[in-house]
Write a structure and sequence with these properties.
The structure is a single chain. The protein has no helices and five strands. The N and C termini lie far apart (61 Å).
Length: 111
């Protein structure tokens, strides 16, 4: 007898715009279709345009009550400025037993 694990899912949907104006709409960096049943590890890093890390989190979005990024820096807990930021997201897929890497940009608007 043999055991085969089959799992499927859509790739995570990563937003590219945040409007940090406290209207409860696009105020958090919420990654959709990102299931803890498929992924066992995640590392999210967000950089400003000069390459400085403004946010970093291990196991981003994987706990029971995820704490999504709200646009505040990890060093001074201050709101980032309007502009373009860049991210890298590394995920470890449980079934495939391999790392998946995503990268892109986020446009931040605060007004």
């Amino acid at each position: 007898s043999n055991t085969v694990n089959v799992s499927f899912g859509c790739p995570p949907y990563i937003p590219n715009v945040l409007t940090l104006n406290s209207d409860q709409n696009n105020d958090l960096f919420i990654i959709q279709l990102f299931s803890p049943s498929l992924y066992s590890e995640s590392i999210l890093t967000i950089y400003n345009r000069w390459g400085t890390v403004v946010y970093h989190a291990n196991n981003y979005g994987l706990n029971n009550h995820p704490e999504w990024w709200d646009g505040k820096t990890i060093h001074a807990n201050e709101q980032v400025y309007d502009g373009t930021y860049y991210y890298t997201l590394e995920l470890f897929h449980k079934t495939k037993e391999e790392k998946e890497k995503y990268s892109g940009f986020i446009q931040i608007l605060t007004h």
